[in-house]
Design goal:
Helices cover about 50% and strands about 0% of the residues. It has a two-stranded antiparallel sheet with strand order 1-2. Helix 11 runs antiparallel to helix 12. The N terminus and C terminus are likely disordered. The structure holds zinc ion (2 copies). One zinc ion binds next to helix 4 and helix 6.
């Protein structure tokens, strides 16, 4: 299979690179050869620019409330389902639940569940080595935060990393048409704002106002909070466990991401549903998953082994990459 590197920078070259040969996942492109794809970045930056429309559309409490609610729903979905379920299979759920949260995850405009989880599994297999797509060690903090996914190497879904979920046609459909859920959400936020404005004209609420707050501002907030896990938690915070990477634990990032800030814990033992290993390590997603478990929506949440909870464990990492196992989701 042909390699995509070396790539040349620039807008036109970026467009050409989009249609070039797919990367050879067995021989990942070395860091210095990876090039930012400016054409792929245009929609990404347009979503940011759309937030500036707040100057014209103003604000209202319902618009801010929808923004916060959609932030919370999507951060939870990325943390609990894209990461802990699709990437690590740390609990089980039914096929309908799997699809619903895969669909909600797509509304965060971070591609489909197969793309997201395959890249994340690759990160665990290569964390902070020369092949890790988003290591701040090799290319710096901005690259690891929001440039790595706008390269030709990062564009395709590495299905070799995720055969277990790739066998579900509805999940493959989501991954292929990952823009349908966010477009639907954008239309719904606009429609909701227009309806509120129609029912109560004095409120000043408009479809555009709800679209800007509920979709654009909320999505950009979800973007950067998610990206902190790839950038900041490999740079800032404390290290409880010896791991081969630079992963760290951070309370602030754990609060923003609903539990993903306990990244050193997670790199040391990626298989548990819970990432805050101790009671004081707040892990909101785990609490929500436990609650969902009471209603039978999820089950078999994998625990943290007791041996990891001894004071100051110093042993070598016991596990690394989760090995995909076929036949997990229940119909
Ligand atoms: Zn990491
Ligand atoms: Zn992980």
């Amino acid at each position: 299979m042909a390699e995509v590197s070396p790539q040349r920078p620039g807008l036109l070259n970026g467009l050409k690179n989009l249609f070039r040969a797919k990367p050879d996942w067995d021989k990942p492109t070395a860091h210095p050869d990876r090039v930012y794809n400016w054409s792929r970045a245009i929609p990404y930056w347009m979503i940011h620019a759309a937030c500036l429309a707040v100057i014209w559309v103003g604000w209202s409490w319902p618009a801010v409330a929808v923004c916060v609610l959609l932030y919370a729903l999507r951060v939870f979905t990325l943390t609990a389902f894209y990461h802990r379920y699709f990437s690590h299979r740390s609990f089980k759920c039914g096929r309908i639940t799997q699809f619903i949260f895969g669909f909600i995850g797509c509304t965060a405009v971070q591609r489909g569940p197969l793309w997201w989880a395959a890249h994340h599994r690759f990160h665990h297999a290569h964390s902070d080595d020369e092949h890790d797509l988003h290591s701040p060690r090799e290319r710096g903090v901005i690259w690891s935060h929001m440039m790595w996914f706008l390269t030709p190497e990062s564009h395709p879904t590495n299905v070799k990393m995720i055969p277990d979920f790739n066998r579900y046609p509805e999940i493959r459909w989501l991954d292929k048409f990952d823009l349908i859920p966010p477009l639907l959400l954008a239309v719904m936020t606009y429609g909701f704002g227009a309806l509120l404005g129609y029912m109560n004209p004095e409120s000043g609420i408009t479809g555009l106002q709800m679209l800007v707050w509920g979709f654009f501002i909320s999505t950009v907030a979800v973007y950067h909070v998610t990206y902190l896990v790839n950038s900041a938690t490999h740079l800032i915070g404390s290290r409880r466990y010896e791991t081969k990477d630079d992963s760290r634990n951070s309370l602030i990032i754990a609060l923003l991401t609903f539990g993903e800030g306990w990244h050193n814990n997670h790199h040391y033992y990626p298989n548990s549903t819970r990432q805050g290993f101790f009671w004081w390590e707040i892990d909101i997603s785990y609490m929500v998953l436990r609650t969902m478990g009471l209603f039978g929506l999820v089950w078999e949440l994998r625990p943290v082994p007791k041996r990891l909870l001894a004071p100051k464990p110093k042993t070598v990492p016991a596990t690394a990459t989760p090995v995909p196992i076929m036949g997990d989701a229940q119909s």
